[in-house]
Design goal:
single chain, 228 residues, alpha/beta, 7-stranded mixed β-sheet, 7 helices
Length: 228
């Protein structure tokens, strides 16, 4: 397992342009986090609703991939979860740590690549991704799903949100996804429990807003059955 995983990650990491990493670092170094278009001082509604439904028990270790300025991680930590946020940008991690300390939230933040997470197998009971997956090109998506599956315990819940293919605007992430594309990447390791189309992040129809697909996935406890 370790040799197979190491071989996969080396091939994947070689395909990630170093320029992309530098760009994320420059973004947080050059622009105040609260002026970035994806920043919100409020938790993403899909994450808040999942916490309210009790998708994770109190005390569950939860990973936030692409945590940015830490809004979602801080929210979950203040609701009794053991949260670790990771982001490629050191500036994002610095901001998240500062904001977390300011409000007394017990969350941890680390600079890390979602394709090569610095955690042991089955370290987390849950995970969230709001804004990371839809930045990945198609050739990296299955590797990302496998890496999340590696660090999640069987039956661990992942809440995922991606900008939908229906969004035609020029601003926004480089990739806008269909449910088929998301399922293709994740179904080898995850069950798709539910999906929801929203005309905007808030769920309200707003002119010019980015529509999103929100999904709840569960880490498989047994391998996916073969096609029949």
């Amino acid at each position: 397992m370790r040799a197979r995983r190491d071989g996969t990650i080396r091939a994947v990491r070689a395909a990630i342009p170093e320029a992309t990493r530098r760009q994320w670092s420059r973004t947080y170094a050059e622009t105040p986090y609260h002026e970035l278009p994806w920043f919100s001082p409020r938790p993403f509604p899909w994450i808040a609703a999942g916490a309210a439904r009790g998708v994770w028990r109190r005390g569950t270790p939860v990973l936030d991939v692409g945590c940015g300025a830490g809004t979602n991680a801080i929210f979950l930590a203040r609701h009794g979860l053991q949260v670790t946020g990771v982001d490629l940008a050191p500036g994002a991690v610095d901001v998240a740590r500062s904001r977390s300390r300011r409000v007394g939230a017990r969350a941890e933040f680390r600079v890390a690549d979602g394709l090569d997470l610095p955690f042991p197998d089955r370290a987390f009971g849950g995970a969230i991704d709001v804004g990371c997956f839809h930045t990945l090109p198609p050739e990296l998506r299955s590797a990302y799903a496998r890496e999340l599956a590696r660090v999640l315990r069987p039956r661990g819940t992942l809440l995922l949100a991606v900008v939908a293919r229906e969004y035609p605007g020029e601003r926004g992430p480089p990739h806008r996804l269909s449910l088929e594309e998301v399922t293709r990447a994740f179904e080898e390791e995850f069950l798709i429990l539910r999906s929801e189309y929203r005309p905007s992040y808030t769920g309200r129809a707003i002119p010019g807003a980015m529509p999103v697909y929100c999904l709840e996935l569960r880490r498989r406890s047994v391998p996916r059955p073969p096609s029949r």
